[in-house]
Design a protein that fits this description.
This is IS91 family transposase. Residues 1-127 form the Transposase IS801/IS1294 domain. The protein is an alpha+beta fold. It has 2 domains: 1-28 and 88-106, no CATH class; 29-85, no CATH class. Helices cover 36% and strands 10% of the residues.
């Protein structure tokens, strides 16, 4: 299980004359702040989804339907250090847009990767 997000954070903005104003080299938050904030918000939302019965657990995850098992899972995840990886784009903003576009403008599994389907199972090829 490897939850992660991709985000684009601008290193500046427009001034009152609509000219770009760069925030400088070290404009962003310290990594520890990002880590703790993301972990806290992610875990709070996960807990809220569980409390509102919006999560489904199947197979080996089925035990987490139980309140105490789920609470133990939350405690285990919350105790881990979450490490964000932040960096400037190598080739500028356009390369970031092209990279993210590969993931945001396509379907998760294209039809040609689906090898077989039954009423309860889908078999597909993976890279």
């Amino acid at each position: 299980f490897h939850p992660h997000i991709h985000a684009i954070v601008l290193g500046g903005g427009l001034d009152v004359k609509n000219h770009w104003k760069d925030n400088g080299k070290d404009f962003f938050l310290p990594i520890k702040v990002i880590s703790k904030t993301f972990r806290g918000k992610y875990m709070a939302e996960l807990k809220q989804l569980w409390e509102n019965d919006r999560l489904e657990f199947h197979g080996s995850a089925a035990p987490y339907k139980n309140y105490y098992a789920f609470k133990e899972l939350l405690n285990t995840c919350y105790a881990k250090e979450w490490i964000p990886y932040c960096k400037k784009p190598f080739d500028g903003a356009e390369s970031v847009i092209r990279y993210l576009g590969k993931y945001t403008h396509r379907i998760a599994i294209s039809n040609y990767r689906i090898k077989d389907m039954t009423e309860s199972t889908v078999t597909f090829s993976a890279k």
